[in-house]
Protein: Metallopeptidase activity
Organism: Aspergillus sclerotialis
Amino acid sequence: MAALKTLFLFAITAATALPSPMVLDRKESQPLSSSNAPWDAGATTQFPIHPSCNVTQRRQIEQGLNETVELAAHAKAHILRWGNESDIYQKYFGNRPSLEPIGAFDLIAKGNRDVLFRCDNPDGNCQLEDPFVQGLTEAGYAGHWRGENGTDETVICELSYHTRRSLTTMCALGYNIAESETNVFWASDLMHRLYHMPAFGQHWVDHYADDYEEVVDMAKSNKTYSTHDSEALQYFALETYAYDIAVPGVGCPGPQHDSNHAEVSGSSSAGASPTSTTTQSASAASDIPEVSSL
């Protein structure tokens, strides 16, 4: 009996000596709020448009932004498929890694859209009277980033509604990549405007080249900033869309030039990338999309 009593007391003592289970702090064990809100609660999934835009202006801006997302999403998809090996990629970015342009396009395609498009010309920069009287070339700005007056705001001026086109007209009405401006289409024009705003350009995408020739020359010299140059990103997105979507396998690149800006004849694939596709294996040359000279 004494032995049983001793054993019982030992069991009680051992039980009380065991360490108590560690209780995690509530904040550590439950990172979400008590309301169990989804991780992306509060995200801005649609581009905000200021009340100063009337119904027709709003409709055009919304459609333009939808096409901007489409343009960026396809540019990203092209890189994900071909990496930095396609002639179009090498034409605009040289042999630079593909990580940076993928991110730049994905921000527009899927990023948080906490910016504002407005139509009320608060800074007086539109300077538009009647474009049909003065002529479109004298009508003032088509739009502008507000800068210090509103870092996340862009103004779309009246001129845009008279001059911008839909991507449905890609490679039509005399348009080609080399000889046309990047702001012909709503999609590429708004892409440029988005990169001006810190939410998308992140003070990293900037203007290092001013036109098509400078963009192509920059890629040929394999400059490190080609993959975050605003013009290069727009030209790449436009050409991949033209070649892959608008006129598949052909596109509308326009006249191709060598590094001295002299027009070259024959297939543009030689002028579109630092190395000729003939140096690749047969399978690589046949699989990777080349830039047509048509």
